[in-house]
Amino acid sequence: LIERSPKTLPRSMVYVSIIMFVMGASIHLVGDSVNHRLIFSGYQHHLSVRENPIIKNLKPETLIDSFELLYYYDEYLGHSMWYIPFFLILFIYFTGCFTPVEEESRMPVAALLLMGPSSLYYWYLVTEGQIFILYIFTFFAMMALVMHQKRKGLVLDSNGLFLFYSFIITLLLIAVWVVWLWNDKILRKKYPGVIYIPEPWAFYTLHMNNLHAAKESL
């Protein structure tokens, strides 16, 4: 993806990006492996660490601080180290997706069919990773680049259109997701900030998990 860029990046920048990506992904996967085991033990993802029943009963209480630190490493540090290089590389790739030939600015049918799964993938990254600000800034940068290149007589090729349209559909999916859960008081408490975008895992443990339990009890 980096080599698709028309401008050659310094090797040191490439290596730092790769190292950050691998370290962030590793931190995230380690944190997720622990979190998934906690969920099997009754951990409720829609609650904060200290509000979870299985965490409240931990002895000694200093263990709660350890789980909060784990949550920070997974949800904040790991995600930042993983997704910042990821979206940076996507944008660098996007800069090389322009062409002066109008005929190349068309997507084949296969690309149109794959746009749905691609958009769902980015929707899940943004919502579960809680990286809306990073995503929206990348999208704005892509829009600015499209307008800038249009003045030069360049248009997006099929690869650029696929990525750009995927980001647009992703934004629509996020908007539908937020509107759907807008009045959920429990999730509102978990995500109290100005940007309210609940995680799919939190929605699952709050609503779907209870539904499965009710069916099993019947």
From TrEMBL:
The UniProt record lists the keyword Membrane: yes
Gene Ontology process terms (BP): lysosome organization
GO CC annotations, alphabetized: endoplasmic reticulum; membrane
Protein keywords: Membrane, Transmembrane, Transmembrane helix
Transmembrane segments: 12-31, 82-101, 131-148, 160-182
The protein's name in its UniProt record: CLN6 protein
